[in-house]
Amino acid sequence: MESLKETFKIAKVLASLFTRSSTPGEEKDYHDWIAESEENERIAKQVLNPENYEENKLLLSEFPSREAWGKISPLLGNNYSTNSFSKKGWLYAAIIILLLIPASYLIYNNIASEEIKEISPGKRGANLILADGNTLDISPETYNKLEYSMQVFIINKEGINYQTPKNKPQIKASTNTLLTQQGMECNITLSDGTKIHLNAQSRLTYPICFSGENRVVHVEGEAYFDVAHDSERPFIVKTPHTSIEVTGTSFNVRAYNDESIESTTLVSGGIKIACGKKEVELTPNQHFVYNKASRQTSLEDVNTELYTSWKSGAFIFMNVPLDNIMSYLSKWYGFNYTFDDEFAKDIRIGAYLNRYESMNPIIDMIKSLNLVDIKQQDEVIHISKKQKQ
Known about the structure:
By secondary structure, the chain is an alpha+beta fold. It is 28% helix and 31% strand. It contains twelve helices and 23 strands. The protein has helices spanning 2-18, 24-34, 38-48, 53-57, 65-76, 87-100, 104-109, 143-146, 305-308, 322-333, 342-345, 360-368; strands at residues 123-124, 126-129, 135-138, 154-156, 159-161, 175-179, 184-189, 195-198, 203-207, 215-226, 235-238, 243-246, 250-255, 261-268, 271-275, 278-282, 286-291, 297-301, 314-321, 336-339, 348-354, 372-377, 380-385. It has an 18-stranded mixed beta sheet that branches. The radius of gyration is 27 Å and the shape is elongated. The two termini are 28 Å apart.
C-alpha cells in the first residue's frame, strides 16, 4: 500500500514540524510536498496552526486509535517504528492522518472486506545452476525445450537424472546446484542412483559424479533422501548445523534458515548425525532436532508420516502452532502473511490436507475454529485473534 506509506510519511513530517523536532531532510520533504498543489499548502496551514490543535484533537475522540494503529502498522513496514518518535509526535501524526484521509478509519476497520484470492498450490520446477555458471529453468512450461540428453544428465517431466551411461567414467570433478523457489519442488537422481525430492525454497549442492571415499552433498531447506546402498562409500548430507552419514537408507531433512530448528527423521536404515561435539545414531522412526537458539539437541520416537507426508502429496499436522503451519504452507503455496498479534501464533491445529489442492479450503478450515480472523490486504494474509462481536 504505497499511497498509505506516503501519506503517513507526510503526516509524520508535519507532526515533526509542529513539535519542532524536524530534521533538514523532513523540512525538504515538506517543501516538496506543499509545492505539489494548493490543496497540500492549505492542509499544511491548517495542521501547523497551533490554534487548531485542540480542535483537531477532538477528531480522535471518535476514532479507535489504538486498535487502528495495530492494523495500520503491519502495512507500513519496519521503517515506521514508534521507538524513534515522541509520544506527542505520534499523537499528532494520528490526527493529521485523519485530516489527510478522513475515511481512513473505515479502511482499517474493514480490512476484512477484501475477498481472499485463490491461492494455488506449488508445482514442479527449479533452477539448475551448472558448474560453468549457466542456469537452466526447469518447469512444466519448459519441459519440451529441456527434454534432451546432455553430456552427464537427462531432464524430463520426471525431474533430473544423472544416472546415465554418459556420466561414466567421470572426466573431472564438477559441482551443480539445484535451487527451488517459493512454490516449487523437484526430483533428482544422482549419479550413484540416490533419489532426492527437494521441497520448496531449498538448495541442493552435489557433484555430477561421485569420486573418493565419501559421497557428499549439501542441503538447505527440506529434502527427502532415498540413498543408494554402498557400504564402501558412505553418503554424507551436510546442513548448516549437522552432518548426516549413511550407507543406504531413507530419511527426511528440514533445515531452513528462517526456522528455529533443524530436524532429521529416519524412515528406514540407519544414520549417524554429528552436531557440534555430539554424535547421535538414529534407528527407524526416530526424529532428531537441533535448536539453533539453545544449541540443544533432542531425539524421540515419532510417526514419520508427520514429517514426510509432503513428498507423497499431503500435509499432516497434529497439535502444531499456527505460526509453524503458516511458515510451512507459505513456502509451498507462495503467499505472504503476517500475524497481527501474538495470540494467533500459538493457536494449535490438527489437520490432514491435500498438498496439491488450493489453500483456500485450509483457510476456511482454520477460520471455522472461530479462534482467529484471517483477512487479505494488498496480497498479504493478516491473521489475528478473533474479535468479539
